[in-house]
# Entry
Amino acid sequence: MNINPHLSRRNFLIAGGGAAGAVLLASCSGGEAASSPDEVTGAGWADGLNDLVFGQIKTDFEAASGLTVSPQASVPFDDYQTRFRTLIAGGSPPDLMRLNDDFLREMSDKETIMDIEPYMSESGVDTSDYFEGVLDFTALPNGRAGLAIGALPRVIYFNKTLFEEKGVPLPPTTWTSEGWTWDDFLETARALTEGETWGACVVTDTAYENTFAVNNGGDGIFSEDGRSFALADPEGVEALQWVADLALVHEVAPPWAEVSADDAEQQLFVGGRLAMFFSSMSVSGYLSENVTEFEWDIAPVPGNVNQYSESSMALMVIPTSAANPDGAWEFLKYITGPEGGQAIAANRVGVPLSRTAAEALVPGEVGPANIHLFTEAANNNRSVHSTTATAAAVALYRPELERAIIGEITVEEALTGAREQVEAALA
# Structure
């Protein structure tokens, strides 16, 4: 989920390039129908994954298929929202487009995105090799609306050198809550908080809302049917108050004023003033390029009742008005297949849909030694339940939640106070 009023979601800095906090979603620059059955048009925004898909993967696909892929000039994500909808509404969109994962349900319900289930059935795609939680993201009531070509899961980034200097036990290296519960996480943050160094930061990546609510036994932000504001249920309220209290009560996390600016938590971490923070796989590229004074690594999200992580999804869809949907499917199948998936993993721009392809995600000269935890996180993915009014709902509750994060009101007051309006929007 990537809607961003007030609290920004630090998604998708692609490993190996890009600015910290860039978002791995869709964008496009103009629409022209495919000129022939042998040509597939495509669109994505300017980022590392886009460069890979319409660079190396495109070239390999063309050599294998005999089809030609003609990508449009990419544009910044900020231009995406309007342009994507404009191209869809205009009736001549590219054949294969990337899409903001927040809007999948909305676009599918409007029948502007093709159901690709018939293609998958006819092609005999072996879905047993796919990460179930990633594959299921596009399974909606009226069909399968595209595929997530990759996932960027959330983990805990930590300053390994600081842990060792203070004699604090390191987090687990596998996806387990043994010795890594919420209580353990809090005690670890306490042990690492000293002087100008904070022990932990969670709130700067708003995926914490769904992840911590689910891990406290709740439904997450929304109910499974997308009609109820589940975050305002007791499990969600308790979880988010626990997160807020890291700063407000326990004083192991920086106050909101210190981390409210974009990428502030990453800069604190690079500067040695933050021991742990919750964020997406996307920031690993930034850390690899900028951390020079200490060794860092990644750990699982701490567990409570459950131990899940939310991944942001890199989605590709075929518009219902695409001129060459057959060619678009062939390219999409290639991207999510062994060759495309291995390229995504080897270039560390995400965890590919295929489990087999994900085996190419291995440690390198820079980056986390425990890089396999990204794959384990994708295997333990729990996404936000889809709704037809996600953007409207977020715009209603998140400003109130910010008031709770700074201690002006309680989380219960913030969420229950917004509940009626949120559920009216969802209805």
Observations:
- Residues 48-65 form the longest helix (18 residues).
- Residues 39-152+311-379 form a domain with the D-Maltodextrin-Binding Protein; domain 2 fold (CATH 3.40.190.10).
- The CA atoms of residues 116 and 144 lie 6 Å apart.
